Amino acid sequence: MKKWWHRWLVLPGELKRFGIIGLNERNGTYLLPNNNRKFYRKVDDKLVTKLLAQEMGLAIPELYHVFRTQQELKDMSSVLSHYDSFVMKPSRGSGGRGVLVIKGRRGDKFVKASGIVMTSQEVMRHAREILGGLYSLGGSRDVAMVEACIGSHHELAKISYQGAPDVRVIMLHGYPVMAMLRVATRQSDGRANLHQGAIGIGIDLATGRTMHAVHHGVSVTRHPDLDTDLLGLYIPGWDQLLEMATKGYEMTGLGYLGADLIVDEARGPVIIELNARPGLAIQLANATGLRHRLEKIQQQALAHRGVNWSDRIKFSIAAFGSKALVKV
Amino acid sequence: MLKRLFSLSGLVAALILLSAAGIIYKNRVLNVPLLPEQERGVWLLEARVSYEAKGKPIKVVLALPGEGWLNPEEGDQISLGYGFSVEQEDGLPVGFWSAREPVGRQLIYYRVRVDEGAGRYEFAQPRLAKVPVAREVRAKGSRGVALAAVVEAVRQRSADDVTYVKQVQQQLQKKPNDESFSFLQHYYEKKYPDAWEQHFAMDLLQMGGIPCRSCLGVKLEEERGAHRPINLIEYYDRAENVWRVVLPDGGSMENIVLWTRAHSMLEVYGGENSEVTFTAIKERAPAGAAERMAESPWWIATISALPVSERAPFRYAALIPLGVLAVVLLRNLVGLVTLGTFMPVLLGLAFLELPMSAALIMLLSMLFGGLMFRAMLSKFNLLVVPRVAACVVIVTIFMMAVSLLSYKIGAVDGLRVTVFPMIVLAWTIERMSLIWDEEGAISAIYQVAGSLVAAVAAFGMMKIEAARYWVEYFPEVLLILLAVILLLGRYTGYRLTELFRFRSAADVNA
User: Fold this and answer.
1) How much is the pTM?
2) Given A93, B24, B172, B390, which is the most exposed site by the fewest CB atoms within 10 A?
């Protein structure tokens, strides 16, 4: 029953009943006890993540170049001249900060995903800021990675206003817990962060189909800019995507983990980054709280150790997939 | 899981028990009240003598207060390896320290308690047998002429001794632009660099036939911190037959106590670079409580045993945990977003020093100016560290400007703008402009507003009189604070803002 106060807030008791967890619970109950600090480097430094993913044989965007010092930036133009499109990002950035997506060239200028044209000086400045540590945690020095720009699958591209939609899968002890698709809007400026105005769309773990969407915390069914239908859409290569995300656990050893993937037209799912502190908006996108699922996995993981990835996926699909819901 | 929680609760219980034991012991056995005594305050006034010893025999003579308002024998002295005695010199009490051959920087403390309600001790009457006579001022040549001109002008505008003194003070305050005054000002400034107003005024008084003499006072004020003795003048009001103490420039005598009528405060024989400074703090516990604490086996849990000048910064530092608690509550229970984790505590400390409105206006104008400047800088493609460094320089310049501007318009609060931590301001500006660029103005303003709310909350926490009293006399409450913070570290419930953030959960689930 919707109450008058639900326009502004929900009561703590109600949230608890919905099984929604807050930041304190995520940190105190799931993140801190399960994520060993010494493994953080594996996900906080994207260069390390890339190497590890390569060793595991997981698909990643091809690394073109790494600028490590200001001196190396002197021949930036000649290095970048080989590539029509690329992504430049800080190796230790967070929350999508400092990510520059170049879609094409116009003469010696660069065209961003949003269509805005940048001069090579502006790109250089961006690289300098990355090296200076502007986007990294704590402002420490960083390196600038240049990697291949992954083109989105056309099925997904048609529901995103610029910028490739990405899929976020949250895992506990390597069991997929919940997944969502994040698509950009005009307001989010090509970025996939929900608090910047991107749309979060919950995905059914069993079928890989989108089930529910939120924009600015409000349930929606159509894209506000493109007016395309957001629900019932199949994520191409879903089984493969789940497999790759799940293997992120073997790769990092982090108990509470988020994996961000983009589905490429030709290559299929590609791992963009892993995240040791994935946010909680996924609960709104799925219209489902995390607590019930996390507790169930906690029990399962305590009871059975060393379960391989395919059995973990099977468990999650059985426990949290839509068919399971129908059965109940 | 259970085991870990148990050990945490064990630790918390131990902390609370230890703290409670200390509080009960202090309260019951040492008779330290649990709440500050409002009625009557006691000031602890401390002289701190420092000098450089060269390995020669040393004699230190410090003028002590006496004559009516205080018995010099009641003071405490703290010094290492010195012989100490109270003696009389020209009828005035002095403290006399001696040592054979100390080496290096030396510190001597002398501390007295001054009851606030003990009457107007600063105007206590000296006992004199005969009515004093004004000393003759020997001034020849152009100084004599100039003095005579100023004296004549003052005499014209006064009716009696009191108004004569008022006129002299006014002259010194206004510093009129006429020839004789400027000449005299120059003369006295050169001859008495530290006390030219005092000597100038005394000569003017004596030439007007008013008996007077110099004396030295000390200000009872916590905010001032350590300060040098204040030059005072004592003149004899011949109509009323009383001595009166005034400041040469006519400033307010409020909270100033007369320390000594001696000409000099301190003489150090055998040492170099000697200096005496005074620190006053208000003792919030009743007389004797601090001493009992210092001498008890529980002395480790009191800062009362420290010399006053060392204790003053501690009272301040001990407040920081309170501000930190406020930030923890706001971030983890309310879910407020701030720029920099504990930056609001530093701002809150700055607010303690200034009236809130003035502090907020200054802070916001500096942030605004800094952001403008930062926007200008972004054109030049500077590297991060030089850019923030440039911001620090600009913030410094802004501070000077605010100071000068408020001095010109007579707003004294502006003069103390340096209480704001410059580096923190510069980083705040940098972070704010980054968020502005990346997430938009609303997000930036939201976070700054969050920081300000947290700063005001931290300020409010540190401002509570009872809380300040506890951390000073019952520092063991910090253990309870620690226990609370530890428990908050295990709080996994919702934050207040999450009730809003997750409101759409009600759409589907409810």
Assistant:
1) 0.76
2) B24
